[in-house]
Amino acid sequence: MALKYSRQREVIMDFLKTRKDHPTADIVYTNVRQQYPNISLGTVYRNLTLLADIGEIQRLRVGDGVDHFDADISPHYHFVCTECGSVVDLVMDNIDDIVDIAGMNFDGKITGHVTYFYGICGNCCQDNLS
């Protein structure tokens, strides 16, 4: 079944494509409301969930209790700052061999992994020096 076109969904997707900071649904809602003042938070949540469920965007659960969203669905890794909560892409070589390493003492079949790196971002490190 083909997904019915939705202008609101398109605006949400277009907004996400402009962001590299992995916004939450509340941030998406606040920004999309500027273009669509009558859009509800529920509509934004439903569309983000749908887009994530069909693989058009990534839903990131980094441990802060809220979902973050990423329009970049290519395999890549994320860094989460434990000071300010920012979530950024990490530019690094692929570490898919970790699946083989993890499977060495496992009797099942590992088909993928999600990896988040945690620490203090550059901005927070600078702030701590001040």
The fraction of residues in strands falls at 15-25%
**Main β-sheet: number of strands, strand sense, barrel status?**
3 strands, mixed
Low-confidence stretches: none
Q: What is the overall shape?
A: flat
**Can you write the helix and strand succession as a string?**
HHHEEEEHEH
- Total DSSP E strands: 5
Percentage of residues in helical conformation: 25-40%
Computed CA radius of gyration, to the nearest angstrom: 17 Å
User: In order across it, which strands form the biggest sheet?
Assistant: 4-3-5
Structural class: alpha+beta
Q: Please give the count of helices.
A: 5
Distance between the termini: 56 Å
Mean pLDDT: 93
Describe this structure in words.
This protein has 130 residues and is an alpha+beta fold. It has 5 helices and 5 strands; from the N terminus they run αααββββαβα. The strands form 2 sheets. It has a 3-stranded mixed β-sheet with strand order 4-3-5, with no helix packed on it. Strands 1-2 form a two-stranded antiparallel sheet. Strand 1 and strand 2 (67-70) form a beta hairpin. Helix 1 (7-17) crosses helix 3 and helix 2 (25-32) packs across helix 3. The longest helix is centred in the middle third of the chain and has 13 residues, at 41-53. The mean pLDDT is 93.
